[in-house]
Amino acid sequence: MATSNISTQAQQSLDALLSKIGAKKLSDAQSSSAPKTTLGQEDFLKLMTAQMSNQDPFQPQSNTEMIAQMAQFSTVTGIQQLNMTMSSVQSEIAQNRIATAASFVGRTVLVPGSTALADSTGGISGAVDLPSSATGLTVQISRSTGELVKTIDLGANPSGLVGFSWDGKDAGGNPIGDNSYTVKAIMTSGTTQSAAATDVYGPITEASIPTANEPQTFTVGGIGKVNLTDVKSIKF
């Protein structure tokens, strides 16, 4: 409850009025060691009503101090309510951030990288990020030893993301069985060949809880830590 200090002389007058209207003060045990110098907002509401009802209409008492006190009470109460509301909002935001972060764990996302983890079927998937149109585009998939196991011809494509996938099997249809593979993209423009950036799908194994100073980050299998802004696609 909000409180405010008043002068001793004013207190004596207030005590007399409080006694008349039956308003409660602090307990005797609390006030025995020192004069009572605080009043609750409810007491002041009763006091203002009593003062206005009992004052001499020909010699009205000044309400300046009481009105000032009530204004202070209103301000303090408003601040307290605002603080409680802000605390509640902050708590809800924190809970939502935790729930959102938890919902990402286990999802498969497309992020920049060249190391792709095999999915439950043994295959991998990803995309090539073409900076400009290409007359030809190939993706080379290699084992961790460097052995080339698959070449995918994606043909001519405009600029942007060009998806690819591989089932994880060799030319004879036999599963290779590796846990991860390295991908490399080569684009052709006329007679010129150059490397193109690749993105791979991987599972989110950990998600941070973002704050005002720390953005959302994920740990993606085969890639490591990435920012939320690096995620180009999410599989649901």
User: Which H/E pattern describes the elements?
Assistant: HHHHEEEEEEEEEEE
Q: What's the count of strands? A: 11
As for the number of domains, it is 2
Instruction: Identify low-pLDDT runs.
Output: none
Radius of gyration: 37 Å
Helix content: 25-40%
* N- and C-termini, Cα separation: 51 Å
What is the top-level CATH class of the largest domain? Mainly Beta
Arithmetic mean pLDDT: 82
- Coarse morphology: rod-shaped
Number of helices: 4
Q: Characterize the main sheet.
A: 11 strands, antiparallel
The helix/strand class is alpha+beta
Which architecture of the largest domain per CATH? Sandwich
Could you characterize the architecture of this molecule?
The protein is of the alpha+beta class and 236 residues long. Helix content is 31%, strand content 31%. Strands 1, 2, 3, 4, 5, 6, 7, 8, 9, 10 and 11 form an eleven-stranded antiparallel sheet that branches. A hairpin with a 3-residue loop joins strand 9 and strand 10. The longest helix is centred in the middle third of the chain and has 41 residues, at 64-104.
Fold blueprint:
Elements: H1 8-21, H2 28-31, H3 41-54, H4 64-104, E1 108-112, E2 115-117, E3 124-130, E4 136-142, E5 148-153, E6 160-166, E7 180-189, E8 192-207, E9 217-220, E10 224-227, E11 233-235
Antiparallel strand pairs: 1-8, 1-11, 2-7, 3-6, 3-8, 4-5, 4-7, 7-8, 8-9, 9-10
Helix pairs in contact: 1-3, 3-4
